[in-house]
Structures are given as structure tokens and as C-alpha cells.
Specification:
alpha/beta, 11 helices, 15 strands, 16% strand, globular
Length: 346
């Protein structure tokens, strides 16, 4: 089965060998308070710095998923004001988590066909936590580096939090443009689901240490305290962490450039397709990692059924685009040969 679903998606080549290595090493049966696990945790931290240019002082932590991070942030900063900026379903869901937990919050909703302009945001809004979504998986948009830098400049006194689930490990980022980055690994990392990565800037760590009063067991305060000695608050997904460490060695700028080039080709290809057209037409907001295509509802049903019969999985539409779009992942684990098969099948 060839999987283009935008998460969980295709596993990276060689993962079977790395799983065998994990079993043979004995790490999977090690106590998570042991020096062996702490060494593995430290290895992930160092490999983020080596292979993904994470600045010194930024701390890597682990959760079960990105969506868990929504709740952790809301609970850990329950006495802080939030601003959610979004243009799709997942950004909205994050906002709703804050709302349900009675967090003081405001929202800025922007169009999918144009870049977020910070100059148009009400200057009266003063938020301590600014929440953005790097790649909006529901519609295939993303926030460019220029937009991320503009958000950082506009809200220079705030902590910037980024849900980077469909972008981390598929897009080159400037870490300094945000203080809190988080993602699940079943997308661009090409790993099985069940592990979330949470990355905190020195400023975020300082704020958490001195200004967070959350007493939940899995609060940011406890996560940071445990992470400082390469431990976790809970028994973690050790296999996922081991595979993440191995995967990090294989990620680099070549991957990121390859994804951008391939997505440019895909947009060109479908711009002239008789029955499928790109949902997003503005080049500056087209994500390199998730492609959304729109078409007649009956044709959409037909193409999904046909591809499934050919053992090819694609993503259905999401939110308001559920019935008239499909979504295709363009992740590092996918090869050009995979896409040749997909395009031929379509």
C-alpha cells in the first residue's frame, strides 16, 4: 500500500532495520530513569542541534502528540492571555482547546489565498502567548519565513508558539522566530504515530520556570524540570525516541529543497488537469509538504475509490473542504517514483 495520507503517512526507508537495532540494543526494556535512556534523550537533543541547526539553549522535550501540546500549553499558561491566528481547521481546533479551558484569548482569522499581514492586526491586542500554525494541514497553506519573522517582530514581548506538525522535518525553519515549537512525528519525520516533540527556547524555559504555577502532572514546569536531566515526566515512547534519533541523521537542507521542487512540479501539473485544480493559488502560501486539490464532489469520490483499488491512499478533504477536495502528502519519505505511480494512477 502506497500512503500519501497527510499523517500518519509513509514510513521512511530503513525503519525496519532501525527497529531491529532498537530491539537488539536492549534500550526498549530499559528503565526510563536509567542512564541508558538519558543518553538516548541527550543524543536526540544533540542531533537536533547537529542536523537541524537547533540553537544551543533550546530544549527538546517529549509528549504523546502535538494535540496534547495544545492542552499542556493552555493548562501551563492558564493565567496568561492567548492570541490565536489561523486560517483552517487545525488552527481553529487549537483555539477551541484554549477556549474550553477558559483561557483569556482572542483570534485573528485570515484568508487562505493571501499571506497573513501583521500590519492589519488590531494594535490594541496584547497577548502573552501568540499561537500560529506552520502548515495548515486542512487546506495546504503555510506561513513563510517572512511571515514568521514579521510575527516575531510584531509580538516581540510575547512567547510565540508554533504547531509545526506538518512542517517540522520537511521545512527549513528559523528557530529564533518562535519560542515554542511542537509536532507529531507521523508526518514529515516518517515515523509511526505516538510521539510528540516539544522544543522550547531559553526565554520560554525561563518564563515557565518563574511564571508558570500549573500543578498538573504533565505541566510544562515539570516537563522542563525533568528535561534538564534528560528525563521525562512519564514513561515515554522509547521506540519512537530511538527511531527519531536515527531519522534525524538523515534530514538536511537537500531534503527540504527537494520537497519544494517537487511541490512546484505538482502545482504545475495539476494547474492544467481537466478535473482537479489546486485549492491554493497564491504561491507564497502554498505549503511544500501538503497539497490540496479541489474538484467536483462526484469526481472526488470516484478518484478516491479508484486509487484505493490500486492500493494508493490519499487524504480526504477536511473541514469545510471535506467533500470537494483531496489532500496529498509530500513528505521526505516519499520518492519521485512514488509520485510517478500516483500521477499515472490519477
Amino acid at each position: 500500500m502506497l500512503n500519501f495520507y497527510p499523517g500518519p503517512s509513509k514510513l521512511y526507508a530503513g525503519i525496519d532495520l532501525h527497529m531491529q537495532e532498537a530491539i537488539a540494543s536492549g534500550i526498549l526494556s530499559m528503565n526510563h530513569r536509567s542512564t541508558d535512556f538519558m543518553a538516548l534523550y541527550k543524543q536526540v537533543q544533540e542531533r537536533f542541534e547537529t542536523y537541524y541547526d537547533l540553537p544551543k539553549g533550546y530544549s527538546v522535550c517529549f509528549t504523546s502528540s502535538a494535540t496534547e501540546c495544545w492542552t499542556i500549553l493552555a493548562q501551563s499558561f492558564n493565567n496568561r492571555s492567548f492570541l490565536h491566528m489561523y486560517n483552517g481547521s487545525f488552527g481553529k481546533k487549537w483555539m477551541e482547546v484554549s477556549k474550553q479551558l477558559n483561557i483569556e484569548h482572542e483570534s485573528v482569522i485570515f484568508e487562505i489565498h493571501s499571506e497573513l499581514s501583521t500590519s492589519e492586526i488590531d494594535t490594541q491586542i496584547s497577548a502573552e502567548i501568540v499561537c500560529t500554525t506552520l502548515v495548515e494541514t486542512s487546506n495546504g497553506t503555510f506561513l513563510s519565513r517572512d511571515v514568521q519573522a514579521s510575527i516575531r517582530e510584531t509580538f516581540s514581548d510575547s512567547l510565540i508558539a508554533v504547531d509545526a506538525t506538518s512542517g517540522l522535518a520537511g521545512i527549513s525553519v528559523k528557530w529564533e522566530d518562535a519560542d515554542i515549537w511542537f509536532a507529531s512525528v507521523q508526518k514529515c519525520f516518517g515515523l509511526p504515530s505516538g510521539l510528540g516533540v516539544l522544543i522550547l527556547s531559553p526565554q520560554a524555559q525561563h518564563t515557565i520556570e518563574h511564571r508558570s504555577k500549573d500543578t498538573h502532572y504533565n505541566s510544562l514546569k515539570r516537563i522542563v524540570e525533568n528535561g534538564s536531566t534528560f528525563q521525562t515526566t512519564h514513561t515515554p515512547n522509547i521506540l519512537g525516541i530511538f527511531l527519531l534519533s536515527e531519522r534525524l541523521k538523515e534530514l538536511n537542507e537537500i531534503y527540504f529543497l527537494k520537497l519544494k521542487e517537487r511541490m512546484t512540479y505538482l502545482y504545475t501539473h495539476f494547474s492544467s488537469h481537466p478535473s482537479l485544480q489546486p485549492l491554493i493559488v497564491e504561491r507564497n502560501v502554498q505549503s511544500p509538504t501538503v497539497l490540496a486539490l479541489k474538484g467536483d464532489e462526484d469526481y472526488i469520490k470516484q478518484i478516491k475509490k479508484s486509487l484505493k483499488e490500486q492500493e494508493i491512499i490519499i487524504g480526504s478533504g477536511y473541514g469545510i473542504w471535506k467533500e470537494n477536495t483531496i489532500r496529498i502528502a509530500n513528505f521526505p519519505a516519499h520518492t519521485d517514483e512514488d509520485f510517478n505511480k500516483l500521477l499515472l494512477a490519477i
